[in-house]
Design brief:
The chain contains 16 helices and 19 strands. The protein is an alpha/beta fold.
């Protein structure tokens, strides 16, 4: 009998076919197992306190839970002092293409995550020339070829590639908009809207969990509420939900929640609010008001919930600090605009204050000291990874926003960034709500 002492800091996760504890299965030999996890504290999905027990695994099933000191197994895991739990569900991850680049998913499994839900506005499908063009630098960097057009095609590719995670996905409203309209800031024609609805229909038939939006980012930001209601109605016909990164988590958050509620009610489907937060120091402490608005909608009969990452910095692209109009027409047009001194002057003026019609991440982070470079594509710029924009500007001898603009240009709009926008008190208040779950990114 092989004994293994494991050292996970938080939990021992049962990475088996199910995401919860399955009922023990009968067997011809009740004392023979493939694995036994001994001496652990069992915290199952029943909502009860932990209890001490061993877990016997046979094949891909939990075959026994109890005291198994006389049982035999091919391997024994000593879980003394550890929690034994089902795998966790990441309610919003971003691994749809990462799993094709490195299918081990070590960053998720090491946290005990065995199931991920993905697709925030953008999604793995539909794909065509219009959706792939802005992805070209990313795809080229990782030598990734997108050889699918539909969600069904993506799932076949993922299955062929292999993955240790269970993966579910939404179809992104941004994705279908980009597939039909591209990156233009305009409403769809009636014919284009029908094309978009057909793409949502196909994705739902292929297994999408619902429709998702990311309404602070172009081109998703360009969609009006009525357009989203029409797409959400298609998802509703297939039992889907509407999941959204709100149009605002800052100056216009209450109106943004109202929009999500309206979409849920008029389209007739449940609502999930992604990464619930209150952005901007001047608004910190107002999470109780946000919670009360959601609670009121629930009391009125709408199935609305939220998820939240347990940290105070938001992670997205450095280029997302720019006003949405700068990206009208796609990444190439955005970079072209950043070369124009007059346009730079306009951007600087707009980024100096709040705007009810778009999310000023730079301002809500408190400016250059609250924005950190996190993920650089250009090898020549790697030395700046982990610096704030204030530190970058000092190192380069530039004005802070010029340093930001120049970095976006030099890294071909591929830079990631952390925006320190939220407070821990608001975060904890939201996490305590019974309708709030957790996400990883």
């Amino acid at each position: 009998m092989k004994s293994v002492k494991i050292g996970l800091a938080v939990a021992i996760i049962l990475c088996i076919a199910a995401i919860g504890f399955l009922r023990p299965q009968a067997s011809a030999d009740q004392n023979q197992f493939d694995f036994i996890i001994k001496n652990g504290r069992i915290l199952d999905d029943a909502g009860e306190p932990w209890y001490a027990a061993d877990v016997g695994i046979r094949g891909e099933r939990i075959a026994a839970i109890g005291k198994l000191e006389h049982a035999q197994a091919k391997a024994v895991v000593d879980a003394t002092g550890r929690i034994v739990s089902p795998g966790f569900i990441d309610m919003l991850g971003q691994s749809e293409t990462a799993l094709l680049i490195d299918n081990r998913s070590l960053s998720k499994l090491s946290q005990g995550i065995t199931t991920e839900i993905t697709g925030e506005g953008a999604s793995a499908a539909p794909q065509n020339a219009k959706t792939l063009e802005p992805l070209t630098p990313y795809l080229d960097r990782y030598h990734l070829i997108v050889d699918w057009t539909t969600l069904d095609g993506y799932f076949h590719r993922l299955e062929g590639n292999g993955t240790p995670l269970n993966l579910g996905t939404y179809v992104g409203a941004t994705q279908v908009r980009e597939a039909v309209i591209g990156d233009e800031d305009r409403a769809p024609t009636p014919q284009e809207l029908e094309q978009m609805k057909a793409l949502v229909e196909q994705a739902m038939k292929d297994g999408a969990l619902g429709l998702s939006t990311a309404l602070i980012y172009p081109p998703g930001h360009y969609a009006k509420t009525e357009e989203l209601i029409e797409l959400a109605k298609v998802a509703a016909r297939h039992g889907g939900i509407y999941a959204t990164h709100l149009r605002s988590e800052g100056a216009s958050e209450m109106a943004a929640i109202d929009e999500a509620i309206r979409i849920g009610r008029e389209a007739g489907l449940p609502v999930e609010i992604f990464h619930l937060k209150v952005m901007g120091k001047s608004r910190w402490g107002s999470m109780p008001k946000v919670v009360e608005k959601i609670r009121s909608a629930r009391d009125a009969g709408l199935d609305i919930r939220a998820d939240q990452y347990p940290y105070v910095a938001a992670s997205t692209q450095l280029a997302s600090a720019l006003p949405p109009w700068v990206a009208d027409g796609g990444p190439a047009r955005m970079l072209e605009r950043l070369h124009d001194p007059q346009i730079r002057a306009r951007i600087k003026l707009e980024m100096a204050g709040e705007h009810p019609e778009w999310e000023n991440l730079y301002f809500d982070s408190g400016g250059a000291n609250g924005v950190m470079i996190s993920g650089v594509a250009n090898p020549a710029l790697k030395k700046y990874d982990g610096m704030t924009i204030a530190e970058l500007a000092k190192a380069q001898g530039k004005q802070e926003l010029d340093a930001l603009f120049d970095f976006v240009l030099a890294d071909n709009a591929q830079t990631g960034a952390l925006y320190f926008v939220a407070s821990e008190e608001d975060m904890l208040y939201a996490l305590k709500q019974p309708w709030t779950s957790t996400q990883n990114s």
